[in-house]
Design goal:
Length: about 425
């Protein structure tokens, strides 16, 4: 790729560092006018954090850092401000570039929290995880927000315990004038409900807060056993099956360990392979035996037909040959029967084989079939992994199959960017 002709370049921190340090690209580096660092919180990670710091020191242009998970934004701003002051001294400019922290406290996508235990998902309400003493001593976090569902649950809990610190309109009164319920208005209603709780915290009404927290807590159930004392291999395939039963796939499972990504993918794949062998020996045994007999008949008919074709002279076809051809045309395996005999059973894969672009899927899998046969084995079950050691083509194949909704679960480190 001719980088010097590109007006916009999307790349990785490691690749950008190589460009900034390369003597061959110094003229191009001087033309950089703006740099946007996405997921800037990665500079605090255990792996690769030094790369982030170096490129922020090396690059000599205005930059924007984006993140949804930085909790010490002011400290980061001060660090970058000191960098700009030193840069100004070295470059002998009159004034350093100004550094601003822009905070945005609204999410466009809800984060619903659940606790998994014994093949069940229990909804977790953020207020239900606290108690009156914690809230009155520490208050609600500044970045606290509720999804519409969590807002309704909190409002119901407040009404249930007859807490009327301030009057707020009902849902009908608040939303009925609008033709479409906009997210911004949902957030405003959420603030009204949250303010009721904040009034209780300000007044130190610990007993009422405890009652509200208890009614929102799902961790008091006797059915919950957390953490479960089971091997990881058993826990992960049970968890995946639970997501499948509840129609919550596709899914990304994040972990910091590259080896664990592959171990979990291997564990889920092995479970489905073992299940498939069991089903072939039990549920589908009689059907498979019948299909094997039918396949033998088809092969015999094909051999007989070929022999008759070789014995024919000119265009004079014998009646026996015509009958053989008719028998061969009638004997064939359907797509379902072929899959039952030689393919992967529907019960033994997560792959979305019905509504995907089959031609695209085959092309993508073919691209990694020679280099990563183990990854192909996982992909055929709708499972994949994604980490820094998965390079170039293989990484794009995994992302493409997940985006195409063929692969239904990915075990990934921080590298996954869709």
């Amino acid at each position: 790729m001719d980088i010097e002709k590109r007006r916009i370049l999307v790349t990785l921190p490691e690749c950008l560092e190589m460009l900034l340090l390369s003597p061959n690209y110094q003229r191009w580096c001087q033309r950089i006018r703006y740099c946007i660092f996405d997921e800037i919180h990665c500079m605090s990670g255990d792996i690769g954090s030094d790369v982030w710091e170096r490129i922020m020191l090396l690059i000599n242009c205005p930059m924007i850092g984006l993140s949804a998970t930085v909790n010490n934004g002011e400290s980061l701003r001060c660090w970058i401000e000191n960098v700009e002051k030193q840069r100004s001294i070295l470059s002998k400019t009159s004034e350093p570039r100004q550094v601003y922290l822009i905070s945005h406290h609204e999410r466009l996508a809800d984060l619903n929290k659940y606790l998994y235990s014994n093949r069940q998902l229990y909804s977790l309400h953020p207020i239900g995880l606290m108690n009156g003493k914690q809230l009155t001593s520490r208050d609600i976090p500044k970045d606290f927000s509720l999804s519409p569902c969590e807002t309704l649950r909190l409002n119901e809990a407040i009404q249930k315990h007859h807490v009327h610190s301030q009057s707020i309109p009902t849902l009908t009164e608040y939303f009925s004038p609008d033709w479409i319920i906009e997210r911004s208005k949902c957030n405003k209603y959420s603030n009204l409900v949250s303010n009721q709780l904040k009034d209780l915290i300000t007044n130190g009404e610990t007993s009422k807060i405890d009652s509200i927290c208890s009614s929102l807590s799902s961790t008091t159930s006797n059915q919950i056993s957390y953490p479960e004392l089971k091997p990881m291999s058993s826990l992960i395939h049970e968890f995946v099956l639970t997501l499948k039963e509840k129609n919550l796939l596709p899914c990304i499972v994040f972990t910091d360990s590259r080896s664990l990504c592959e171990e979990l993918a291997e564990s889920v794949t092995q479970y489905f392979e073992k299940l498939e062998n069991e089903l072939r020996q039990t549920k589908y045994k009689s059907q498979i035996e019948a299909l094997e007999k039918l396949k033998t008949q088809i092969e015999k008919a094909a051999k007989t037909s070929n022999r008759c074709d070789n014995d024919e002279k000119g265009n004079d076809k014998s009646s026996k040959s015509q009958q053989t051809n008719e028998d061969r045309n009638q004997l064939h395996l359907s797509g379902y029967e072929e899959n039952l005999l030689n393919g992967i059973l529907d019960e033994c894969t997560l792959a979305n084989r019905r509504s995907c672009d089959r031609e695209l899927v085959d092309q993508l899998i073919e691209r990694v079939s020679s280099r990563h046969p183990r990854l192909v084995r996982y992909l055929n079950r709708g499972v994949a992994y994604h980490h820094p050691q998965l390079k170039g083509r293989s990484r794009s194949v995994v992302e493409g199959l997940f985006r195409n909704r063929y692969a239904q679960i990915i075990f990934s480190t921080w590298t996954l960017g869709m």
